[in-house]
Structures are given as C-alpha cells and as structure tokens.
Amino acid sequence: MGNPALVDPATVRRTAAEGWIWGFSLLENYRTMYPQAIDEADPRYVGGFGVFRHYPKPFTPANTDVVTPNNDTPYSWAWLDLRAEPWVIEVPAMNRYYVIPVHELDTPYVGFVGSRTTGQEAGRYLVTGPRHHDVPADGFDGVLRADTELVGILGRTYLAGPEDVPELERIQGRYRLLPLSADRGTEPPPAPHEPVWPVWREEIRDTLEFFVLLDFLLGFFPPRPAGSAFPAEQDLRRRLAELGIGVGDFEPATLTAELRESIAQGIADGRAELERAAAGTVGSTGLFGTRAELGEDFLARAVGAHMGLYGLPSAEAWYGGWAADSEGNRPPDASERDYVLRFPPGKLPPARFFWSATMYRLPERLLVDNPLQRYSIGDRTPGLVYDPDGGLTLHVRHKRPADADHNANWLPAPDGPFTVVIRLYGPDQAVLDGSWTLPVLALRGPEEEDQA
C-alpha cells in the first residue's frame, strides 16, 4: 500500500468517509452531466459539449433533470470540455435579470456573467482550464479560470409569463459558445482523447464503485501544487491516492477483504454524516459559491449538492425553506394539515430583483402537479392579494381553498410530505446578515374552511 498506517481498518474507514463526503458533489455533478452531455440516447441530452440547450418555458413536474428545480427563470444548459483549449461565452445586451454561472466538476463556481456581476451590457468572456497558462485576455470583458477540465453552465433568464416566451427565446438564442480557435479564426488544436465514460447508475453512491467513478473523474481535476491554499484537500487526496483512488486505476477487487469492508463502512459513515447535516439545514448560506468562498468545508458543499444541486451563492440568490412546521412536524405533511405563511407588513422578502416560494414533494424534491399548474408563488404572481395591513398571507395546502382571496394566494401542496423553498434574487443586506428572518409555517387558522 505504500503506507503501513493504511492497513489499520479504522484509518481506512475514516479516509473513506471523508473521501465520500468530498467526492459526493463530483458524482452528483456527473449524474447530471452524463445524460446531458454524454448519453446521446437520453432525452435529456443537450447535444454534447460546447452547445447550449435552452428551456424557454418554466419547469413542470415532468422535468426531472435536477432536484429542487428553479421555476422562476428558465434554464440554459451547457457543458464545456476545456482540455484542448479555452472557450468563449458571448451574451447580448438585455433589460431583464439573467445569470450565466460556470461551475466546476466538483460544483464550486468559476465565476458569473449576469445582471448582478457584469451588468446588462453585451459582453465576451473567456473560460480557461487548469492547463491553460498565459492565455491572452485581450478582446474579452473578463476571464473565468477553472481548476477542472470539465465545467458546466446552468444559465437562468427571467421570464415574465407565457406571453413573454418568444422574447425569452430570442434572448436565449443570442447566448453563444465558441472554442477560442473558432473565435480567433485560427487552426484548432488536436482533439483530446475520448475517454470511456462510465455509465451512471443510482446505486453507485453507496457501493465501492463510488470510488471507481471518483477515481475516473479526478483525471479531469489535476492535483494542486504543494503549498496551495487548500491543504486539507491536498492531504485527503494524498490519503485517497494511497488507496489507489485518484491515480487512474482504482480496482476494489485488488484490495483485501478487510480493506474493502473498511471502505464500505466509511461510505456508510459518510452517508450518515451527510444526512444528519442536511436534516439540520434550512438556509443556503455557505452552501454555494466560488472555491475561495467555500474554502474547505466539504460537508457544506455536499449538503448543497444533495439539497439543491447548482444552487447560486447567497449574494446572487438567497435560498431558505421550511423543513418543519410550527408544531415541529418534520417534514410538513399536507395529507391531513393545511398551513399558512404570514409575512407581516414591512417584513415581505426584500429582494433587488424578485422573490418566489416553490413547492416540492418529498422525498423526490420535484415540483407538484396541481389543477392550477402553479408550482411557485411570489411577488410576480398575477392577482396576488395582500392583507389590509400590507402584509401577505400564503395558503399552503393540498385542497383548493373556498375563499377567492385564499385561492389567489394558494401554493398547492402534495397529498403528503413536502418542503417549500423560497428564493430571493439579489437579496437585501438584511437577508444576508440575518436580521430578516422567515416566518413559521403555521397550521391553518380556524377561519378558513375547505371547499365544499
């Protein structure tokens, strides 16, 4: 093994647990990338690497690409292979909210092009990989430098409503991706070797095959030089490498039965730690951001990938939610209970751009089918009725309310367990510093009756 300490089953178990948590976000990212960029037979295939696939309409319960899908701003998906050369992102001028975030293979963000960070003007931005050194940045409005050779884009663009779809399609059609050689009219470099992409299977997460796939993915994530700003990651990768993980040829069958059992126990430990952490998480602060912002809190990054893959950092979009109701029921369940969310006057969600609350059924964390085809509610919802004092009461329940005002403010819930996620785009500082807080998810008041 190269290190006698790794023969100790307890040491191997700890390394496997830490490695599972650290590698969880890479595998969750691959879980989405495989059907979108690699498996041409999958209906979610976007066309391979280097192309945009746009969704000009809001998500519905039929969309299952990612958990807790954003239903406010239709998506623009793309994946880039940076091994051969950098890529160029071009965006048009526009007068609506948008963001084109570029995320790395392990899900931290390389950077953001959009309303909050780069403004509303047209722009050209260069995305470089870890092996691209001294690439001239002339002619570009910014450079996004990735630490991994595969990156993804999950762009969001504001949609005002069904009548706005043609204009949104026009805007999305002007998002462009070009390899640097095509942008400059030069001869393209040789194409990189096409790897044998492992087939994604859901059960991979909880078996030793997790580390087989992690070993493959680390081939696109060059180790950092000694003395980097991420010593804990360096140490963990060194310990994983002593087990053969991250060197390109990990094969569990070559390990002793004792070592395989220790790794399996470590996987179970890592899974349990992630589930405990996720159960106690109600906000998004610290879960999403750039590598510098996230630092080496690998558990927080895993919780973010588990609860809302590709969530935006709090400065861009703040996420909160209700994991329990006012009676302590966890999770809330609408099969026998009706709820209200009451925002007092002066305490409505403070957002520079807009806010919404989206309903998800559990355990899938997908949108909820309902007769109104209403999957979220917020300050852009037509006909929203505010309280006489200027506050706002939302009605969260499975059955349609009888009262017309309640119906206007109805967020349909499933006939069972659910969670609600609230998103504030361009949150106020009061949100970021915690001085603004969410109201409780309260049981329905006695004055409301079920529809006859």
Automatic annotation (TrEMBL):
Cited SUPFAM superfamilies: VPA0735-like
InterPro entries: DUF1214, DUF1214_C_sf, DUF1254, DUF1254_sf
DUF1254 domain boundaries: 51-178
Transmembrane segments: none
Pfam families: DUF1214, DUF1254
Organism in which the protein naturally occurs: Kitasatospora gansuensis
Protein name: DUF1254 domain-containing protein
Gene3D superfamilies, A to Z: Domain of unknown function DUF1214, C-terminal domain, Domain of unknown function DUF1254
Sequence ranges assigned to domain DUF1214 in this UniProt record: 319-429
